[in-house]
């Protein structure tokens, strides 16, 4: 056998393999027997027709095509062995380029991993923003803690103010008719919480216990179909006014908190802990933003034509991930689509851009990793398996059954490549 490989555009290629000699002779003889076994001649049992008579009934072209199909797999394996750089994306399609009694040339139409035209990827910047946490931000977080631990006390005198809890009876009407779900008794409504229709809470401010008022509002356009955009009137009576009493910020208050563990015992401890947590979060967000910008920059400077089949597969995988994510929150995709007014195919197409970018980034990082000669060791793979085991509370061996070392190695290599790019970028800036 001999093979010839030629790349085409957009991740396409042709692999031609010629089979001749004894191998082709054996394939034709095997095909002849198979074709002969299918021939039915009156007076003879199938498979027992004399050879001389069979020759008059056998279609020679049928034998040649059958023989070509018989050697196709061996021919493909030979070609892939000859050209080890071929990395298939999809199952090849087969065509017969030339066929005769002497030889057959099979043409395999391949979809291969596309070449990446690497630009000056080392010049793409990774620059996380500097972060800081102000005293005001820390104080706001502490105040929220106090709000969550506040007590409610009934106020005997005075009017409803913002931040108070007005205990109300209410009933709503549209065009003078009461509507379903528009009635409540002794309902505790925190003024300023935004939990009621816009404008409702503000109109309670200034009312005293025992006072009644008709409140006029308009339902938002995004509301339920029956009420969206309609004007409504609510008859409201204030039964009582409660105010939140915040706990005093002292060491005793901090010691009673369950949110921070035994090491946080004083106001000073709490302040330091909250400040550090806020700074860590801001740092993580800044680094993620810078990483996204780095990846966008790599996509801009590195050119690649992605085969359609890769995008379609990634789109399907992204759809499965979204379905699993919804299921974890108790949602079914069908319910979500009903609310959004979409078909499954429309939703799938909305994920296509995200999927294409994921493929593009993966292929670019793979190409950069090859260019930088990034290597993945057995220790790297085992450490990743161990980390996944701890994260998902599964035995390492079980994870190995689900995820091959080869697949994991590719992910690790891409991650190492990305980290090296970040590190080089930081070191380059430090030298300036």
Structure, described:
The protein is an alpha+beta fold and 432 residues long. It folds into 4 domains: 2-111, Alpha-Beta Plaits (2-Layer Sandwich), CATH 3.30.70.1050; 116-150 and 262-303, no CATH class; 151-245, Chitinase A, domain 3 (Roll); 304-431, Trigger factor, domain 2 (Orthogonal Bundle), CATH 1.10.3120. 48% of the residues lie in helices and 19% in strands. It contains 13 helices and 9 strands. Helix 1 packs across helix 3, helix 7 packs across helix 10 and helix 10 crosses helix 13 (405-431). The radius of gyration is 36 Å and the shape is elongated.
Short structural description:
This protein is of the alpha+beta class and 432 residues long. The protein has helices at 21-38, 51-57, 60-82, 135-148, 251-255, 267-301, 308-328, 333-340, 344-350, 352-371, 378-392, 396-402, 405-431; strands at residues 2-7, 12-20, 93-99, 103-111, 151-155, 165-174, 177-190, 212-218, 231-245. 48% of the residues lie in helices and 19% in strands.
What key attributes describe this structure?
five-stranded antiparallel beta sheet, elongated, 13 helices, 432 residues, 4 domains, alpha+beta, Alpha-Beta Plaits
CATH class of the largest domain: Mainly Alpha
Per CATH, the architecture of the largest domain is: Orthogonal Bundle
- Average pLDDT metric: 91
- Alpha carbon gap, first and last residue: 59 Å
Structural classification = alpha+beta
The fraction of residues in strands falls at: 15-25%
How many DSSP-defined strands? 9
Morphology: elongated
- Major sheet: size, sense and barrel closure? 5 strands, antiparallel
Number of domains: 4
Radius of gyration of CA atoms, rounded to a whole number: 36 Å
CATH homologous group name of the largest domain:
Trigger factor, C-terminal domain
Poorly predicted regions are none
Here the CATH topology of the largest domain equals Trigger factor, domain 2
